[in-house]
Every structure is written in C-alpha cells, then in structure tokens.
Amino acid sequence: MKNFVASYSGGKDSILAIDKAIAAGYQPSQLITTFNPDKQRSWFHGLTSPILQLVENSMQIPIQKIVTTATTYSENFEVGLAEAWQLGAKICVFGDIDIISHLQWCITRCDNVGIKPYFPLWNKNRKELVHEFINLGYKARITIVNTTLLDARFLGELLTHQLVDEIEASGADPCGENGEYHTFVYDGPLFNKPLAIKYLEKIEQGEYVILPYEPL
Fold first, then answer.
1. Residue pLDDT, tens place only, 26-40
2. Which among 197, 187, 192 is positioned nearest to 136, based on CA atoms?
3. Across 115-141, average pLDDT
4. Considering the chain, what percentage of its residues have pLDDT values greater than 90?
5. How many CA atoms lie within 13 A of 51 on its CB side?
6. Which of 9, 33, 32, 6 has the alpha carbon at shortest distance from 19?
7. DSSP state string for the chain
8. Which position among 137, 145, 146, 177 has the lowest Cβ density within 10 Å, counted as fewest Cβ atoms?
9. How far apart are CA 182 and CA 94, in angstroms?
10. In terms of Cα–Cα distance, which of 164, 191, 17, 2 is closest to 103?
C-alpha cells in the first residue's frame, strides 16, 4: 500500500479524488494546500487557517500549508511536494478532470521532485462526477461564483442533484470546471464529524461573489 499526499483545495473535486485514491487502496499521509500570505487564505478557494484546522481535525489527515506568493507558486509547490516525499508519500493525488494545461502543470511539478502524479478523475464525465460526489454522501455549498459565467443566486446553495441540473439549464458547466463556481465540502464519508461553521455576509469582489465562513 503506497502513501499519498493530495493537493487539497476544500472543494468537491479534490475531496472526490482523495476518496477515489483511498478506494483504490492508497493511504493518505498528508494534504497540501497553497496559502496566500498577504490575504491569509488559501489560494483560489479562500480557506483560512482556522478552517484548515477544522478540516484536519475532522478528517484526521495532517494538512501542510504551502505559503507562497504568485511569483514563486510553482517553486514553492515543489518544495512542499519534496517535503511530503521525504515523509514517505510516493504519489500526489490531484482532482483535475480534463483541462490539459492543469494536467501538464501538475505532472511537471511532480516530475521535478520525483513523486508520481495520480489523477483519479481524469477524463471522466464532468456531470457524472458531480452526481457521484453527491451520491457518496458528501455535503458541499457553493462559496464562490463567477458572475460572468453563472448567476449570483447560486451562491450559498447546497450542491444537490436538482441544483446541478439547474446550473446546467442556466448554460453553465454543471461541474464548474470552467471556473463558474467553487465549493466547500463540510461533511461526508471522509469526515469524522460535520465541520462546525457559520456563514457570513456575502462579499462582492469584481466579477466574483464570495460567501465567507468561519468556525462556530
């Protein structure tokens, strides 16, 4: 059984990839997430340190924050991978689905360190993956919406089969793979208990609307 490190964003795709890796017989040793020191939040999904601590406590998997600026992002990601490899991880799990540039970036980072990349979701049907995520019993809310691609009314909604159909009917990708929306997963099979969080007032930031949250 090989130990793996996983690139963790807090969203549905990274959680589903971790779930699939475990189902395939691999053992999680660590999660890594890139962290913006200026905003004191994770890159892209905006997870704060207290939220990451909640996740770590519930999932019982250590989370390593890779503190990095935009200009040193790739370099620092490799440093984090190298540290995970030294601690015994032989594989890095990613939640990418079908965007080639993302795949190539991940492969390059892993090749430079000598760790094997693993893409459990690669080339799977986008909509079917969302339904699989829901069917497994995971709970996620939409916490970021790109309003140029998806209506702001979807912010804060619980990801359900019906909601996925509504997103698709609106003309957006049901999986949000083009950046339409991001989610935060707060409960499901990988969690020992649901994350105790509260949602705050929405924030409008250019073309994005964001639903911040914090521990109760």
1. 999 999 999 999 999
2. 187
3. 98
4. 99
5. 22
6. 6
7. --EEEEE--SSHHHHHHHHHHHHTT-EEEEEEEEEETTTTEETTT---HHHHHHHHHHHT--EEEEE--STTHHHHHHHHHHHHHHTT--EEE----S-HHHHHHHHHHHHHHT-EEE-TTTT--HHHHHHHHHHTT-EEEEEEEETTTS-GGGTT-B--HHHHHHHHHTTS-TT-TTSSEEEEEEESTT-SS---EEE---EEETTEEE--EEE-
8. 137
9. 16
10. 17
Query: How confident is the model over 35-60, as a mean pLDDT?
Result: 96
CA neighbor of 101 nearest in space, from 183, 11, 179: 179
Nearest CA among 9, 16, 3, 5 for reference residue 124 = 16
Which of the four pLDDT bands, split at 50, 70 and 90, describes residue 1?
low
| 131 in Cβ contact with 164 (< 8 Å) | yes
How far is the C-alpha of 71 from the C-alpha of 207, rounded, in Å?
23
In the chain, where the domains are located? 3-118, 136-215
Predicted TM-score of the model (pTM)? 0.96
Cα separation of the two ends of the chain: 37
- Length in residues, the chain: 216
Token pair 């090749």 in the structure block, residue: 111
